[in-house]
Amino acid sequence: MAEPDAASRERRIAVGAVVVLGAIVLFLLVVGSLGGPKPEDDRVEVADVLTGTSPPDRFGSTELRIVGWYAELTGDCEGDGGGADPAVSWLQAECPLRVLVPEQPADDVTQAELEAAGLRLAAPNGRPFPSRAGPEGPNTRGQQLVFIGHFADSASASCVPERVARCRSTFVVSDYDGLVR
User: Which fold has domain 39-177?
Assistant: First the structure.
C-alpha cells in the first residue's frame, strides 16, 4: 500500500511544478507589458506622411521615425544652395536634394520625379545622411532606411517668404538607421 501514496505524492509534486512554472510565465508577461512600446517600434511609413494633412500640421515638431527609400541628388541637382544666411540656408536649399520616397527609386530617377514623390530631408550640419554609393547620378540605397527627426523646425520662420511652407514641411533629420526590422 505504500506505492499508492508515493504515486499520489509524485502527482502532487508534478502539479505543483506546473503551477509554479505557470506563475513564473504569468509574472514575466505582466512585467514585460509594463514598459509600453519602445520608441523604435513607433515608425511611420513615408507614404502615410505624404497623404492627408500637411506633415507640420499633423505632427508638429514631435520627433518621428519615418521609414522610406532614400535618394540624393548632388551633382545633377539644379537649384540654389539656400542663400547667404547659414542659419537657414541648410533648410531652404534646393540642392543637394535629399528625399525619402515610398518605393525604391530607379537608378535613373530625375530631380522632378524625386521632388514630386518624395519627402524633403535636411539637417543643420548635413551629416546624418548615408555616404554616396557611387560618384555620379542619384545616390540611392537597396534597402529602406529609418530617419529620425521632426517637422516644423524653428528655423523655418527665417526662410524667405516663398519657401516658408516648404521649410516647415521639410523633415529635419537628427539621425538615421539602416536596419529596418
Answer: OB fold (Dihydrolipoamide Acetyltransferase, E2P) (2.40.50)
